[in-house]
Amino acid sequence: MKRILITTSFVAIAAFFAAPATVSAGEGLGDVDKGRVIYQFGKGDDIPACAGCHAEDGLGSDEVGSPRLAYQIAPYVRKQLHDFAKGDRTDDTMYQMNDISKAMSDEDINDVAAYVHTLKTPYIGSNLDQLRRDGADVGDPHKGKMIAEYGSPDHGVPACASCHGFHGRSAGNMYPAIGGQNYVYLQHELDSFRNGGREFGAKTLTKDEMANKEDNARTNDYMGQMRAVAKNLTDEDIKNLAAFLTLAKPTTPGNPRAPSH
Predict the structure, then answer these.
(1) Can you give the pTM of this predicted structure?
(2) 51 and 108: one domain?
(3) Does the pLDDT value for residue 121 go beyond 80?
(4) Which of 130, 128, 116, 125 is CA-nearest to residue 57?
(5) Which of 69, 95, 116 lies at the terminal end of a domain, its last residue?
(6) Burial of 26 (0-12, 13-18, 19+ CB in 10 A)
(7) CA–CA separation, 63 and 124 (whole Å)
(8) What domain count does the chain have?
(9) The domain boundary residue, chosen from 63, 83, 116
(10) I want to staple 168 with a disulfide (CB 3.0 to 4.6 A). Which of 36, 129, 145, 179 is the partner?
């Protein structure tokens, strides 16, 4: 009897860890096939194809400042689309996401998030040498790695890994994957969170404050956590973190297991 119980327990545990990540019905399960159609071809006149800016493979583009969506978690994608639609986040790069998201139904958002969750293009990251040749001020990946893994206690910056997991590959449904993200997008968003943190602190804004906030100030982070961290980042910190994270891989030679999200 003891052997049967042990075997049963082992099978249950193995099945739990082997099961693919899913989103609970309460959060909204989307239709992957419908999401693929919207992502690749758009829907009507008001919802253009996501692939136009984020690329067919979900890698995004440094040239237009669009983020990588491949390996992003569905709950995060869904939240950002809802926040764009409600005006809780402003697209101050392409100036399109607010209007596009407003035109999307809840079903459209769930479907697109579900499809994005299936994009598993290998981690590539930005070409930092090309960015330098193009005149970009690129940080030092080695210095960025120190902050990502250990933080900067001397000026109140915790390790990115404490919330975003190893090399920013995400630590669950609450925090997005930031490893392999595009350099230009990472730099811009960290700067936006810093502006939001400096101007307003880690709090929820009123509608009046939202209407009058600085354009490049992002304030839709969970419990103000990113604003509280980013307000202490220096310009060099931001460039160094962006340089490391864009090159960060989700595995190491000694730990080849890829994230399952």
Answers:
(1) 0.83
(2) yes
(3) yes
(4) 116
(5) 116
(6) exposed
(7) 16
(8) 2
(9) 116
(10) 179
